[in-house]
Amino acid sequence: MIASRHSLRRTVALALPLSLALPLAACGSSGSGGSTSSNPAATADGTSSGSTAKPSGEITVYNAQHETLGKEWIDGFTKATGVKVNVRNGSDTEMANQIVAEGKASPADVFLTENSPSMTIVENKGLFAKVDANTLADVPQQYRPSTGMWTGIAARSTVFAYDKNKLKAGQLPASIMDLAKPEWKGRWGASPSGADFQAIVSAMLQLKGKDATLTWLKAMKTNAKPFKGNSTVMKAVNSGQIDGGVIYHYYYFGDQAKTGENSKNVSLDYFGKKDPGAFVSVSGGGVLKSSKNPTAAQAFLNYVVSKQGQEVLQNGSSYEYPVGSQVPANSKLKPLAQLDAPDVDPAKLNSPEVVTLMQDAGLL
Ligand SMILES: [Fe+2]
What we know:
The chain is of the alpha/beta class. It has helices at residues 2-15, 67-81, 92-102, 117-124, 133-136, 195-208, 210-223, 230-238, 250-257, 294-305, 307-315, 351-360, and strands at residues 36-38, 58-63, 84-89, 110-112, 128-129, 151-163, 188-190, 224-226, 244-248, 266-269, 280-288. Strands 1, 2, 3, 4, 5, 6, 7, 8, 9, 10 and 11 form an 11-stranded mixed sheet that branches. Helix 2 (67-81) links the parallel strand 2 (58-63) and strand 3. It starts with a helix and ends with a helix. Residues 1-26 and 28-50 have low confidence and may be disordered. Bound molecules: fe (ii) ion.
């Protein structure tokens, strides 16, 4: 993992301005970052895409989603279609920058992310092909950009993970903006270098504007303890190092489903009320315009949002929310419709500006 990801990062750093080439760690990637492949197991009837052409051959997926989730989708697709899938794993930002650096020569046929700002980076360079209409039809409009150049494939909720032994309901921040208040100095944490947290800031930027976001980030620099990775933030809450942390919901549910040892003292608070802290981040999937096998690439994306692909989210170990084919979330999760998330256009989340503001605030 280390060697290949560092070499990828070096490639990107040579090709792009520093502001775009910062090493923003994938919050959840923990296994190998190298290329692997999933061998065809069977040739079946294809996907439910309604495409006239049957997918065949092989494709390469640049996967910035959690590796285990990406693998579940890839293995399911290969089993259903016989299409061989090569996968390269990395973080949102480094993989987006890699695709931009490679341009039309990119070996990627499909790009999957954890958060949508990196989809926007690739879309803004004109590198995506339009997503097949039958795929878009599987995903409600609120979980995909109006341009149709990529689609949402999963969703995750921002939460305040807090130490339930220390804080009672009335002591929780009513808004994520409250974490800028002096009373929260030294008491909360986050993973500022991660694409997950930066997506939350990009939502704040869209909802509250540049000045309010920069003011909040400067207060965060004073008040918050930085950690690397959302799991580390949750562990710090669990061990009493901090009272609370801003993370995504699935880190808690994933730990609870295992031993719960990193979350036994933790509860989640959902900010709700359309607060920036109630931001629901859309993971994206898109097909590259330069794909040499667009039929199979489009079929893969169709599989991910199909009932079968979305049931991976409902029944698997990711604990992320399904967004397509009317598949309900895992019953352990607070239903998506009850989160009272703010209205954010995923196509307009501005990650380069977020990086600049976070640098200005001394967080990066
Ligand atoms: Fe994550």
